[in-house]
Amino acid sequence: MLSTSSDGRSWSAPRPVSPGAAGLDRFTPAIAAAGGKVYISYRMRAMSGTAPTVSEDLIVSRDSGHTFGPERQIGPPAVLAFAAVADTSTTAFLGDYMGLAATRQLVALAWCVSSPPPVTEPYHQLLWGATMGG
Known about the structure:
Layout: E1 25-34, E2 37-48, E3 51-61, E4 72-79, E5 84-85, E6 92-93, E7 99-102, E8 106-114, E9 125-133
Antiparallel strand pairs: 1-2, 2-3, 3-4, 5-6, 7-8, 8-9
């Protein structure tokens, strides 16, 4: 959802910027803007076969947030079965290192991806990054 303000006191009604779909959760958004472009990244949870996965997705506006292009998945999905968990929890921890930054020419993303471990460890999570032309 996006709401705008020209004075920081009064705001427009929130409006959706990503396409809605039943059975999909979008969470942990990050927003960056530069040169009239607005970038919004977020995690999206879906089911892939029998293993729940979470993807990193990005949508872009090239007209200061008035309209947004299509949703794009960035990198591979994280497999929640291999995400870290706290000692007393079974809730997947997707990582602290998620973010988005933009200049007039580029947008940079950082996010964590869990996947089957290369050794006999229960968890495997790597920090991924991408830089794309704006």
